[in-house]
Every structure is written in structure tokens, then in C-alpha cells.
Please model this.
Amino acid sequence: MIYKNNYCVLNTMHSKAEAIAEPFLKNLGIKVVEQKGDTDHLGTFSGEVERPGTLWEVLKRKCEIGLDLSGLTLGIASEGSFGPHPLIPFLPCDFEALIFMDREKDFFLYETLISEKTNYKFEDMEDEIEFFNFAKVIKFPSHGVIIRPLEWDDESIIFKGIRTFKEFRDSFKICQTSSARKTVRVETDMRAHMNPTRMMVIRELAEKLSARITSQCPKCRMPGWGKVRIIKGLECIQCGTPTEKIKEEIFGCVKCSFEQSLQKGEWVGPENCHYCNP
Model:
């Protein structure tokens, strides 16, 4: 193992080592240690703090903060976002991203995962009775919720990590009193330590990333060799028109410029062709 008996810092406030530590130890021999650096200033799911930059910029900065605070040379950080699936808009999805940084070898590596395994949901309620159906769907109380007034003039009035019906009722009353329309926004708490479903998706991505790190570049032996892009355009066997099917997968190194192409075939059937099968 390339990194056997090394330590890697995971900058998190939300106990993500629960999902990430075991795959990294199993696949790489890396022992993950948590660094509880303040990551809320890099954005919050509940909306009080907007993300200061792209997901990729924030992810890299979060990892760098962990490295700086710990003094270690290996770091990991995790970011997620939630919303409509890119291909199936009515289906909610979890988009997760992980970064691994090695300051000694001077490289970093991203991996991503889009998963339909999510309980992401929000609803505006005028009566606390409406919560019971919502609670069943989102797997409350094993999964937490966030509650705030619908009209959010005072951002200090927000309750996170609600996991009992008593907490919900108490918070609901305060938020309803603070809302001009007497309406309360209830949403799933998507922070990893409050959402076991999200924690499982992060673990799945940690398996994917740690497995990629084990793969070395054929030319310079740097870890992290893997797929860097795809080329579409596999041709229709009937008319020769390029289709949306993948023609090549390009594998590359995170450090040097070496790449290799994997051909995915020569032809596809006419059922995949927008000309033969409009």
C-alpha cells in the first residue's frame, strides 16, 4: 500500500470519519483523523451563510484549512449539494464530492457521485399536524430536520438537528409566532451527522476515491490514475451518424500529462440513433 501507516486529516464538523475512515484504512492503509475546523463560514445548507465560491473552490479551501491546522501532509474534505436530478428533474438527488490532497507529492484529486439515495425534502406548514406525514417520508427521527419561519427576517430564529417530536413542537410554535403568515418552513437536515442516508452515500464515494488512489500512473507511478473525461459519438451501424453513446474513455494522471484511451466499441444499434430512431 502506497500510504500504509500514514495519517490523513479530515476537516469536518459533522463526524464524516464515520463514513470515510474505514474505506481509506482498508484500501490504502491510511488512518483518518478528524480536525474540527470551522467550516460553517464556507457555507451552510440552511442558508444563513452562502457558499463563497464554487463547490470545487470551497472543497479545496476546506481541505487546505484542515492541513494547515493539523500540520499533516495528507488531507480529505467533503462537500455535498441537493436538488433535482440532472437527467430526471422530478427526482431529488444527492451530489457528493470528495477531495484528497497530498502536499508532499504536490497533487490533489477529486471524485464525485450523483445518487438518488436521498431524503432531501422541504415543506411549508401552517399546522404542526402536517408534520406527521412528512416525518414518515423523511425517516424522522433517525434523520433530523431544520425548522425556521417562512419569512426569514431574523436569521437567528432557526432550529437545527431536531430529532424528537417534543423538540419539533416547541420549535414550531416559536417559528410560527415569528412568521407574518404563521407559516413554518420544515426541511431535512442534510448535515451528515444528522442524515444517515447521506452518510451512506459519502461512504460509497469514499470507496470510489480510495480505490482510485491505489491506481498508479503507468508512466510516473503517481497515485490517482483514473478516468478524466469521455468522448461521445459512437456511430450508428445503420447510417454512420454519431450518437450520444460514449466512444472513448480517457484515463489520465493527476500529475504528469500522460493519458490513455479506452475504446468503448465501434458501432451502436439504430435504436440509439436520433436519425434512424427520431
